[in-house]
Amino acid sequence: MAAESPTLDLLYIDTHNITTMAIADISQYPEGFTVSSPTLEITPPGFTKETTAFVARSMQIYNSHTLGITSGDCTPSALPDGIYTIKYSVFPAYRNYVTKSFLRVEKLLEKFDKIYVKLDIMQCDLATKNVERKQLNLIWEYINGAIASANNCAEKQAMELYQRANDALDKFSKNCSCK
């Protein structure tokens, strides 16, 4: 009787930080299964694949240094937004692996948050505030639509919605009362 194989799975965890991201192993391993040679291959948008050792049954934090985006002793830089592809494998790799993609939107959320906190929602001109609030709600829908699209393998649509949200935030910041 053949040994039971694990059901490998990963979880992207939002660190609410533009310089880090977290990946957790949420795999289901059969009783008595020995995890051998766990490896992650992470491909950030616009960069080459970075292969790194991974600790099974754990969560690990990654930054621009660990992903091969920057090097040196300086402070890690912001990770790029966009579609990340991650392949998690254990020995034997030809049978036991999972590939996941996710859309990272931390820079976009940071831009949104900075505008949002500057917006004086207690301002006397409620008509202006209502218009601005509706615009921000639409931008928020673009962001959530981009994430939902990426989660459903519609990467082109995800990036189109991401760009629409980014452009709308740029336009909003030029014209809003939040300066």
Key features of this structure:
single chain, four-stranded antiparallel β-sheet, elongated, 179 residues, alpha+beta, three-stranded antiparallel β-sheet, Immunoglobulin-like, 2 domains
Structure description:
The protein has three helices and seven strands; from the N terminus they run βββββββααα. The strands form two sheets. It has a four-stranded antiparallel beta sheet with strand order 4-3-6-7. Strands 1-2-5 form a three-stranded antiparallel beta sheet, with no helix packed on it. The model has no long low-confidence stretch (mean pLDDT 88). The radius of gyration is 20 Å and the shape is elongated. The chain folds into two domains: 10-104, Immunoglobulin-like (Sandwich); 106-175, no CATH class. With 179 residues, it is α+β, with helices and mostly antiparallel strands.
